[in-house]
Amino acid sequence: MKKYLVELIGTFLFVLVVGMTVISPGAGNLAPLAIGCILMIMVYAGGHVSGGHYNPAVTLSVWMRGRCAGSDVLPYWVFQILGALAASQVVCFLKGNPTVTPQILSVGPSLVAEFIGTFTLCYVVLNVATAKATAGNSYFGLAIGFAVVVMAYALGGVSGGAFNPAIATGITAMHLEKVSNLWVYLAGDLAAGAVAAGVFKFVHPEDP
Q1: Closest Cα to residue 117, out of 170, 74, 55?
Q2: pLDDT tens track for 59-108
């Protein structure tokens, strides 16, 4: 239960920062930096307990790579989504229940952007936080957080830059995205997590 609580808290704070920095008055062009930094902080804070996933796509990727118990996958997903939904309600309360216009997505480019961004994040997680060659390093949280910063700046204008089904759920609950677009994030992000695990295992066959 400790692991699940850590995942809930981390995802809650992650989505909270997303909402508070994106919804006006927000942080403007600095929003991706704040979002990446809170992920970095929570990875360092909770990584030793739960692995610091805060992202169903990362959980899927780490499980497929063999570093997450199958019995933990569904509970991780549930607590990540619960944290995201709770954060979305807090953001709406703190922002005074603002009227928000959902982003208009182009499905094809958005799917590709979400896939690339999530693949990058998951691939970095697997290499810096689960590989034997990088075991015990002190930079894993920084690499993971800044993977999100870079991809958000590069691809956020295309898809909104969720790279995380929990974030996608949270921003949908905050009306930043349409419910009808949620499948784009679920499909693109989870597929990217699975592919990242496959690539990692191919590149590192000696690292079970």
Answers
A1: 55
A2: 999 999 999 999 999 999 999 999 999 999 999 999 999 989 898 899 99
For the chain, the residue count is 208
Sign of the torsion angle spanned by Cα atoms 169, 171, 175, 177: negative
**Would you say residue 208 lies in a domain?**
no
| Angstrom distance (rounded) from CA 40 to CA 160 | 20
| Three-class SS of 25-59 | CCCHHHHHHHHHHHHHHHHHHHHHHHCCCCCHHHH
Prediction pTM value: 0.96
Task: Give how many domains the chain has, as a whole number.
Answer: 1
Question: Which domain covers residue 100, as residue numbers?
Answer: 2-203
User: In sequence order, what are the residues at sequence separation of 6 or more whose Cβ sits closer than 8 angstroms to the Cβ of residue 180?
Assistant: none
Please give the C-alpha separations between residue 91 and each of 2, 155, 172, 181, in angstroms, as whole numbers.
25, 24, 12, 21
Q: How far apart are CA 165 and CA 188, in angstroms?
A: 9
Give me the phi and psi of 67, to 5 degrees please: -120, 20
CATH number at residue 173: 1.20.1080.10
Which burial class, exposed, middle or buried, applies to 118 when counting CB atoms under 10 A from its CB (0-12, 13-18, 19+)?
Answer: buried
